[in-house]
Amino acid sequence: MSRSAREIHLIARPTGEPTADDFAVVERELPDPGEGELLVRNVVMSVDPYMRGRMSEAKSYAPPYELNAPMYGGAVGEVLASGTDDVPEGALVLHGLGWRDHALVDATSARRVDPHLAAPSAYLGVLGMPGFTAYVGLLDVAEMKQGDVVFVSGAAGAVGSLVGQIAKLRGASRVIGSAGSDEKVAYLTDELGFDAAFNYKTAPVAEQLAKAAPDGIDVYFDNVGGDHLEAALDAMRLFGRVAFCGAISGYNATDQVSGPRNYRSILTNRLTVRGFIQSDHMDRYADFQREMSAWVSDGRIKFVETVVEGLDNAIDAFLGLFHGQNTGKMIVKLTED
Predict the structure, then answer these.
(1) For 188-239, what is each residue's pLDDT tens digit?
(2) What's the confidence (pLDDT) of residue 248?
(3) What CATH number matches the domain at 129-279, 3.40.50.300, 3.75.10.10, 3.40.720.10, 3.40.50.720?
(4) Superfamily of domain 3-125+304-333
(5) What count of other Cβ atoms lies within 10 Å of the Cβ of residue 125?
(6) Beta strands of the chain (E only): which ranges?
(7) How far is CA 43 from CA 76, 80, 319, 324, 336, in A?
(8) What was the pLDDT predicted at 70?
(9) Rg of the chain in Å (alpha carbons)
(10) Which residues contact 74 (CB under 8 A, 6 or more apart)?
(11) What pLDDT is recorded for position 1?
(12) DSSP labels for 153-207?
């Protein structure tokens, strides 16, 4: 059952913001699955800000994408042919070979998902890597405690929107979020239960954060960096904690991004600032699955997705992340219902 596959390849390393010229759609034949392999028809795939870093050769926590080769990332697909008794044909699996419509997947790197619990796309968001990032970043890295005041930047995105809700469920006294439009601000407060939110494009972040948290903050979950990080450092109470998840404001910068000018606040207020990636905390994954699945099932965690149709539009979906075109998780849907 060899299959023709369409893949998106990286053909040039971007300088600044990527453009369509940095990518190409390539078609090739996939062989039949061998022993321990699965031929998968991808149903949905993920685009995420971290992927921008893998397009560069700069040192990072993960190897860069190879040129003239398919990119990869989270995807959920249907098994068309199986080379193992452990995963039958017709099963839905989560795996890491996105950016293509069909993939030959090592069965040991695929995880079966339950379509009765949630739609396949949820396993790329709330029940997948972004959800786990939010969970472990807030609870383990930032060590959030009941009664803490929590500030989340990029709070309407796939990770930030979940951080704020988990904080409320775990007893935060006040949760504040920043977002890039008035509509997203309303979503945070009216739909997700944030206590306060502000549009970072309408006034300086430090000014708005001081108004939203006049008595300071205990936890900052950083998805943005830049002026958000500086504002948070100034707002931190003694022994505050920063979970440094991402810095999307500088991902497309062409010059070296400078550090926060007020870094001495880390000393003055005895802060803990920790960078992290979710894959370092896999010992907590079972806890996340159990707790998040229950929250989703009973409606205590809400989530939305921004869905783009078709592999040919995946690059536009990815670029849209840097222009605030998503609320919640950005998903590329690869098949029709």
Answers:
(1) 999 999 999 999 999 999 999 999 999 999 999 999 999 999 999 999 999 9
(2) 85
(3) 3.40.50.720
(4) Medium-chain alcohol dehydrogenases, catalytic domain (3.90.180.10)
(5) 26
(6) 3-10, 23-30, 37-46, 69-70, 75-82, 92-95, 102-106, 111-112, 149-152, 174-179, 196-199, 217-222, 236-244, 272-275, 305-309, 329-333
(7) 6, 12, 21, 24, 8
(8) 95
(9) 20
(10) 45, 46, 48, 94, 95, 96, 98, 124, 128, 129
(11) 53
(12) SSTTBTTHHHHHHHHHHTT-SEEEEEESSHHHHHIIIIIS--SEEEETTTS-HHH
Q: Is the Cβ–Cβ distance between 81 and 33 less than 8 Å? A: yes
What is the distance between the alpha carbons of residues 13 and 233, in angstroms, rounded to a whole number? 34
* pLDDT for res 74: 97
Report the alpha-carbon distance of residue 78 to residue 102 in Å, rounded.
9
Question: Is there a contact between 66 and 10 (Cβ–Cβ < 8 Å)?
Answer: yes
Task: Say which residue the tokens 């596959």 belong to.
Answer: 5
Output the six-digit token pair for 117. Answer: 């619990």
CA angle (223, 127, 164) in 5-degree steps:
40
Task: Kindly give, in sequence order, each residue whose CB lies less than 8 Å from that of residue 62, ignoring residues fewer than 6 positions away.
Answer: 53, 54
- Is 225:261 a contact under the CB 8 Å cutoff? no
User: With contact defined as beta carbons under 8 Å apart, do 195 and 281 qualify?
Assistant: no
CA nearest 166: which of 283, 329, 294, 47?
294
Helix (H) or strand (E) holding 131: helix 129-136
Low-confidence stretches of the chain (pLDDT < 50) are none
How many C-alpha atoms does 85 have within 13 Å on its Cβ side?
A: 0
Is residue 6 within 8 Å of residue 71, measured between CB atoms?
no
Domain ranges of the chain: 3-125+304-333, 129-279
* Location of structure tokens 């001081």: 210
H or E segment at 235? Answer: helix 226-235
Q: How far apart (Å, rounded) are the C-alpha atoms in residues 92 and 95?
A: 10
Point out which residues pair with 57 in neighbouring strands. Answer: none
